[in-house]
Write a structure and sequence with these properties.
Layout (H helix, E strand, L loop, with lengths): L3 H4 L14 H7 L8 H4 L20 H29 L3 H42 L2 E5 L8 E5 L1 H5 L11 H5 L1 H14 L17 E4 L15 E6 L3 H17 L3 E3 L2 E2 L11 H4 L2 H7 L6 E2 L4 H4 L9 E3 L9 H15 L1 E7 L10 H14 L4 H14 L8 H7 L19 E4 L4 H7 L6 H15 L1 H9 L5 H6 L7 H4 L1 H6 L6 H4 L2 H4 L6 H13 L3 E4 L5 H14 L5 E2 L3 H8 L7 H15 L21 E4 L1
Parallel strand pairs: 4-5, 4-6, 4-9, 5-7, 8-9, 10-11, 11-12
Antiparallel strand pairs: 1-2, 3-13
InterPro entries: FucosylTrfase_pln, GDP-Fuc_O-FucTrfase, GT106_glycosyltransferase
Family: Belongs to the glycosyltransferase GT106 family.
Protein name: O-fucosyltransferase family protein
Length: 625
């Protein structure tokens, strides 16, 4: 069902919708001074703290629009008076003197009125601004297990001054949402005395119940007699995970033996981790041995082959994105049969999701949701993070057992009487497409710059053209503006103040605990995967994030309807935040809650969509009657 929010058009700020000619402005204007229904109901009614060309801005832009109208109005009246003066002068000397004195008094009175109106509106402007600036914020800090709530009162400048992320006195970021910030703080205070909404931590119940069943098999053993498949996967841990499971399916399709996948070194991620540093090799091999044979290395008689010379190397560029199984049967199988080995270099998302045979699709699910287990080093630290997020009181279900292995049993500490704590996980993405699009440098030197430039040329050609034809800010400047989190820690000041229990893996782990992972971005990403997948609720910040896609699929597969994922609807949220200067908290809260509830809805996998992100399909999960 379409929501009320979905039906509302997003306010347009394009100059096409703003009359720019005098005739256009006169036709669209309301009363002379900008008051009345015409002004308040305009589709371009923005916060006076907003800044947009052709719209009111934060430094008196309304006056630049209204005062010319006022002058025009007074000027036209002055013109009428001058015409009357001419007629009086023509009638006699006494009349001319009287008319002159009357005109002088009226002109003086007009100037006084005009000045009074200006002063009045400037005073109103100052008063409204001071109301926003001086509103106190009340923050709640609740200790888990404590029955009392301590209230800390902070003055407005203590927060808003932290938002001056530009360092040049600008405060537009703080002012823009200061009203909502104050309302949010008071709402949080009031919410402490009210029970939580029942559906806050729940996934909406659909008409059909699903259960995981990708571990069920219905085919014969594959002997792998046609040769060996080698895969060198590109990207970060999440792209590598997709590549691994696609390679497993290709090996089965071509009746071949899979060599344990390799990971290419990336100057962007700067992580030399290989398969065995992240996943348990023996578990992977043994779990899938009924599906395909997997070996750790090529037989000795094939190791000396010059694969490039015999044409057995197939690059990512030679395979179309999401190629159909028929491509592999027609183009790759003949090479395999001839040379006994094929090496896919830079392999990634190169196998379509439809049309794919049922059991082959199920094998991809089986690989992703069952065969890939993290090594004990990652499992142990992941369990430690979850334990601390939940204050040492937790449960261990199928998802925790899959992610943490034997360490799942250690989540609960005996003898501790602490009230259980639930947590929401949010992933702030940092992936190669974001890095390339930002046009920043991240410390990887010329190799990194070249790799990002090559990626940008393929995926963002408009940016490459812009960079080659226009003077753009330097990468150092862009980096200084905050590429990881825009504005850095200062940007997070407000949310940290409102929600003091905000944590990261760096804040939860000691320096000695996180040190073994510090130079391995893929292993750190594995910790992110564990904490996000096991969260009581998970919020995606970008639907294009590969980690968010895999985490949401994992929660869907193992959650049993109890692990909701909040998926962003940026267009709808933007339409709500655009009304930040006028919207009342009740309406704001209702609309945001409605949006969140709708984004938590789960549907059966659409045609051609990722089975890893949308496992709710007959190939991966089974319906319960």
């Amino acid at each position: 069902m379409a929501s009320a929010d979905a039906a509302q058009p997003s306010p347009s700020l394009s100059m096409d919708s703003v009359p720019t000619t005098p005739r256009g402005r006169a036709a669209s204007a309301g009363p002379a001074f900008g008051f009345g229904p015409s002004h308040s109901t305009s589709p371009l009614s923005l916060s006076r703290f907003s800044s947009s060309r052709g719209a009111p801005d934060s430094c008196g832009g309304w006056w630049r629009t209204s005062l010319p109208r006022l002058r025009s109005l007074l000027g036209s009246r002055g013109g009428d008076r001058r015409m009357r003066r001419k007629r009086v002068v023509g009638g006699g000397g006494v009349g001319a003197i009287a008319g002159s004195k009357g005109l002088h008094r009226r002109r003086t009175r007009g100037i006084v009125i005009w000045g009074g109106v200006v002063v009045f509106f400037f005073l109103m402007n100052w008063w409204m601004f001071s109301r926003l600036q001086d509103t106190p914020i009340r923050l709640l800090r609740r200790n888990p297990g404590a029955s009392n709530v301590s209230v800390v009162s902070l003055s407005r400048p203590s927060i808003l001054e932290k938002w001056n992320i530009y360092g040049n006195g600008q405060r537009s970021t703080g002012v823009m949402f200061s009203r909502l910030l104050g309302l949010a703080a008071h709402a949080l205070a009031e919410a402490e005395s009210r029970p939580e909404p029942q559906d806050l931590w729940e996934e909406p119940i659909g008409p059909t119940t699903w259960k995981r069943c990708a571990d069920e098999r219905n085919w014969e053993l594959c002997d792998g007699r046609n040769g060996y498949i080698i895969v060198s996967a590109n990207g970060g841990i999440n792209q590598q995970r997709v590549a691994i499971c696609n390679a497993v399916a290709i090996a089965r399709l071509l009746n071949s033996t899979l060599v344990l996948p390799r990971f290419l070194y990336s100057s962007v991620w700067r992580d030399k981790s290989q398969f065995g540093d992240i996943y348990q090799e023996d578990y992977f091999i043994n779990y899938l041995k009924v599906d395909i044979p997997i070996v750790k290395a090529l037989p000795s008689e094939l190791q000396s082959l010059d694969l490039e010379a015999i044409g057995s190397i197939v690059t990512d560029a030679e395979i179309m994105k999401e190629a159909k199984p028929s491509f592999y049967l027609k183009q790759i199988l003949p090479i395999l049969l001839k040379n006994r080995v094929v090496h896919f270099v830079g392999y990634g998302n190169r196998l379509a999701f439809d049309p794919v045979p049922f059991e082959l699709q199920r094998l991809r699910c089986r690989c992703n949701f069952h065969a890939l287990r993290f090594v004990e080093k990652i499992q142990e630290t992941g369990a430690l993070l979850i334990q601390r997020m939940r204050h040492h009181v937790s449960h261990s279900g199928p998802l925790e057992h899959n992610l943490l292995g034997s360490f799942a049993e250690k989540l609960t500490m005996k003898g501790k009487k602490i009230v259980p704590s639930r947590y929401l996980a949010v992933h702030l993405r940092f992936e190669i497409d974001m890095a390339a699009y930002s046009m920043c440098h991240f410390g990887g030197g010329k190799d990194e710059e070249d790799e990002l430039e090559a990626y940008r040329a393929v995926h963002f050609p408009a940016l490459t053209l812009l960079k080659n034809t226009t003077k753009v800010p330097s990468a150092a400047f862009l980096r200084s503006e905050g590429a990881q989190i825009y504005g850095g820690k200062l940007r997070m000041a407000a949310i940290n103040s409102l929600y003091p229990n905000l944590a990261t893996k760096e804040s939860l782990l000691s320096s000695s605990e996180i040190e073994p992972f510090r130079n391995f971005s893929s292993q750190l990403a594995a910790l992110d995967f564990i904490v996000c997948a096991a969260a009581d609720a998970f919020a995606m910040t970008d639907s294009g994030s590969q980690l968010s896609a895999l985490v949401s699929g994992y929660r869907m597969y193992y959650g049993g309807g109890n692990l909701p994922t909040i998926r962003p609807n940026k267009r709808r949220l933007a339409s709500i935040f655009l009304k930040n200067s006028t919207i009342e908290w009740k309406e704001f809260e209702d609309r945001v809650r409605k949006t969140i509830k709708q984004t938590k809805q789960i549907h059966e996998r659409p045609i051609a969509r990722s089975i890893y992100r949308h496992p709710r399909s007959p190939e991966c999960m089974c319906t319960v009657e």
